[in-house]
Amino acid sequence: MNATDTASRRDWRNVAVLATCQMFYNSGRSLLVATSPLIAYEIAPDKALSTVPISLAVIGTAAASIPASMLMQRIGRGPGFAAGSAIGVVGGLACIWGIYVEDFLTFCLGALLFGLFSGFAQLYRFAAADVASTAFKARAISLVLTGGLVAAFVGPELAKAGHTMVPDKPFMASYMFLVALTVMSGLVVMAVDIPKLTPAEKQAGGRRIGEIMRQPVFIVATLCAMIGQAVMNLLMTSTPLAMHHASHMFSSTALVIELHIFFMYAPGFFTGSIIARVGVIKVIAAGIALQAISVVIALSGTEVINFWAAMALLGLGWNFAFTGSTNLLTESHTPAERAKTQAATNFIIFSLVAIGSLSS
């Protein structure tokens, strides 16, 4: 019996809902990644602050990791995700106002708030595994991540479409699209069907977080996810600005981001099956190796082909490392322990990513 045979109708419904939300979220996130360094470069008091907005978005992701998990344990996945989307909408509106009045601090506040929403959205992948059978978990996680595949094209294309739509306010219309995407994520996610923990499960509580974190399986899963996410974020954050300095057109930058995000999420259709066939550790190791190769290519030149190759391998490596690590982490906790375990790992991952982003 394969993983598909063990999946219920509810499993497939949840995967479809969460993958759709992943699509809306990642479309907005890729739009932010592609445009925020360029916006900041124009309105910041110091050009050296160009990557601060995206760094603040990552800081927001880390800051929301623990509250988001705890809130969802209390009120459920659907309402919790919707609350995160509401924060993201406020962030998008702040970005629009910051661009309109050319106020760097307001734009940064908007990026930070969108980062808080991201802290909630990072739990989409975990939610897919909450009630899935053991055999279907890896595939459920990887299929939810494929929602970002459409985002590979939607986000950058909306960034391009909104670039000059409002005269003298570059990218202002792009952030109107970001707000619309975030609203849609909040509406769609309410259809997710994941029951809250029973009173008995809540009362059980489980082990202390320190005991959970000392397990080798938790350490390996979190460390590998941390490496995969940090390397990916460091290169993706710096690429738009690097291409701008190399005098490449924004259309080329958008295409590179599209290619990168395509390779981040397209493998999701088969990563779960690969994990089932060769084992999760081998898949994670392959992902980290691919990311190392991407770094070498990125450092070897500034031609468009260098950016294309580096970002494609970076995306593929991230998918293997992150999907594998997420699947491995589900082996470290019981249902009663999942909120604090997911909170701890996401906080660790995105705290390091924030440091890496600031250094870029």
Main attributes?
360 residues; Growth Hormone, Chain: A
* Mean pLDDT level: 89
Query: What's the number of domains?
Result: 1
- State the shape: globular
* Radius of gyration based on Cα positions: 19 Å
CATH class, named Mainly Alpha
Helix content: over 70%
Tally of individual helices: 16
Structural class: mainly alpha
Order of helices and strands: HHHHHHHHHHHHHHHH
Structural overview:
Helix 1 packs parallel to helix 7 (147-161) and helix 7 (147-161) packs antiparallel against helix 12 (250-265). By secondary structure, the protein is an all-alpha fold. The mean pLDDT is 89. It is 80% helix and 0% strand. The N and C termini lie far apart (47 Å). The protein is globular. It has one domain (4-359): MFS general substrate transporter like domains (Growth Hormone, Chain: A, Up-down Bundle).
Give the structure's gist in a few sentences:
This protein has 360 residues and is mainly α. It is built from 16 helices and no strands.
Write the layout of secondary structure elements.
Blueprint: H1 9-43, H2 52-75, H3 77-101, H4 104-121, H5 124-129, H6 134-145, H7 147-161, H8 172-188, H9 199-204, H10 209-213, H11 216-245, H12 250-265, H13 268-278, H14 280-298, H15 304-329, H16 338-359
Helix pairs in contact: 1-4, 1-6, 1-7, 1-8, 1-11, 2-3, 2-4, 2-16, 3-4, 3-8, 6-13, 6-15, 7-8, 7-12, 11-12, 11-14, 11-15, 11-16, 12-15, 13-14, 13-15, 14-15
